[in-house]
Amino acid sequence: MPAKRPMSAQVRDRLVELFRSRGLVPGDQLPSEAEIAELCGVGRSTAREALKLLEQEGMVVAERGRGRFMSPLGALKVERPITRFESISSMLEALGYQAHTVVLSVAEQAPGDVVREALGLADDDTVIRLERLRSDGDDPLVYSVASIVRDAIPGPVRHFDWSGSLSDMLAAHGHPPVSSAARLSAVELPEDVQRRYSLGGFGPWLLISETVITPAGRPVLYAEDYHRGDAFAFNVLRR
């Protein structure tokens, strides 16, 4: 059974809804860590981590000795901004898709130059290369190629169910992904992929190439996720 999202991320989402339901505006002071912990039924450390996530996103500002306050950015409601880090599984579920995942291939292998550089690997290091397709019924939605640092998921690759969330799997093994550096571009699927999996004729796809890191700053995953261009649009917060 896949692990749940980190509790701090769940509390972060609950806080966003709480602040909006209370009609908080820029400059309003937020409840204290102790109050949030009591409201959400979690420990103070979890409440603190959730608030730090909001600070990292620019929705909350902290003033030493005074507390935390809603920022101007926090007043904006942007549905699923691309600047928010989340797994594809969570995104598809939130968008209302009844997506299922087909594992096209999984293997341990030497990385290419792009992956090696992105993950900071040595010449003799290997990765787990995972190729998957998410579909809603007969409609393909996202074609993905993920390269995972080999020691992040110990054991033979055949011992795992690779159809679930990679973020959850990494978190379950002590490497929770928290953020990434990403690049978005409009591209065609590689011709061999179109031919092999009957994915031609959909026009340009939105490719998000990203390097995912843990709280310690270690890169553990490099992903190339192709989103069908006629099915997805991404919002951006500018500040």
UniProtKB/TrEMBL annotation:
SMART domains: HTH_GNTR, UTRA. Pfam families: GntR (PF00392), UTRA (PF07702). Residues 5-73 form the HTH gntR-type domain. Keywords: DNA-binding, Transcription, Transcription regulation. InterPro entries: Bact_HTH_transcr_reg, Chorismate_lyase_/UTRA_dom_sf, Tscrpt_reg_HTH_GntR, UTRA, WH-like_DNA-bd_sf, WH_DNA-bd_sf. PROSITE patterns: HTH_GNTR. It comes from the Bacteria. Gene3D superfamilies: Chorismate lyase-like, Winged helix-like DNA-binding domain superfamily/Winged helix DNA-binding domain. This is GntR family transcriptional regulator. It comes from Streptomyces olivaceoviridis (Streptomyces corchorusii).
